[in-house]
């Protein structure tokens, strides 16, 4: 009989069970480290984790009845302004034709 399990490493069932805690930042630091180490080497659990993140984002968007915090709003506005500015610069740098 041989054991393939490595000491200290979380197995897939354990990780999948704890993904929701991990996604919600509710897992303890030790659990987080074990889950992170496992996601690093297990593509299946990583895909599961990414799906959980997506679901969480969708749920958040669906219940966006509360206003976004001011810091988040200003960050988004800054990003939009920066994007608009770079578009303007690119257009101005185009040589005139005709
Ligand atoms: Zn796994």
What does this structure look like?
InterPro entries: Anit_sigma_mycothiol_RsrA (IPR024020), Znf_put (IPR027383). The protein is mainly alpha-helical and 98 residues long. The chain has one domain: Arc Repressor Mutant, subunit A (Orthogonal Bundle), CATH 1.10.10. The longest helix is centred in the C-terminal third of the chain and has 24 residues. The N terminus is likely disordered. It is elongated and about 65 Å long. Bound molecules: zinc ion. The site of zinc ion has 6 residues, from helix 1 and helix 3.
Which helices and strands appear, and what pairs or packs with what?
Elements: H1 12-23, H2 29-41, H3 43-62, H4 70-93
Bound molecules: zinc ion.
Residues 12, 15, 38, 42, 44-45 line the site of zinc ion.
